[in-house]
Amino acid sequence: MKERYTVEKVYENIKVEDGIYKLTIKGRFNVKPGQFYLLRAWDMEPVLSRPISVHFVNDEKISFLYAVVGKGTKILSQLRPNDEIKITGPLGNGFDVEKISGNVAIVCGGIGIAPMVYLASQLKECNVDFYAGFKTLGKTVDNVEKYVNNLKLSTEDGSIGHKGYVTDLLKPENYDAVLCCGPEVMMYKVIKMCERSKTSVYVSMEKKMACGIGACLVCTCKTKDGRKRTCKEGPVFLGSELILND
Fold first, then answer.
1. Residues annotated in the binding site for [2Fe-2S] cluster, as ranges?
2. Sheet with strand 162-163: strands edge to edge
3. Which family does it belong to (predicted)?
């Protein structure tokens, strides 16, 4: 199965902080929070396109926040305005914001913040507390506060906010729903916490992907209904559906 892509031009590609970039494309895009695109700015190598979460969408632009972790994202980081890029998407199921209401906690760790800012902006009828955890102070939380009621930060080195893990701050019993994205170990802890408080929790899984369109079965995760494809049935899953790796 071949990817169906469009060729777009880079509007902007800026370094947000060390190893983190935000790439923006001009145009109109209909995207649900939590969905992703396959991005490709090369012909032969690397073989695979890179799955990158949608960071934000407005009437004129779409942006992607990504970490440089390998050859593909290194090439993406070198793109300049008007360079061509191939994109496939939107892909995945995303968060169903129409079914989320009341008091909501968004919990993210590291680059897991990427899809959660757009999500926060779309929960217009909710009271949203945004929890973000990092190893050290960064700039990826800039502009979050305008979309949420409270911003709660933690850093492992104590450079800002609580010194420790973001899960130290979370009290799921205070919320109608918890929405989570970040390192797998963090998400699994949040799921366990929500199970104890009987709070609904939705997580955006981060799995290595090959095709990104459901054909290769590389990105499957264990659920109570069998293995499901993170790129197709996910990346957003109800936490109670997943079988955790204790």
1. 211, 216, 219, 231
2. 162-163, 150-155, 127-134, 103-109, 177-181, 200-204, 236-238
3. Belongs to the PyrK family.
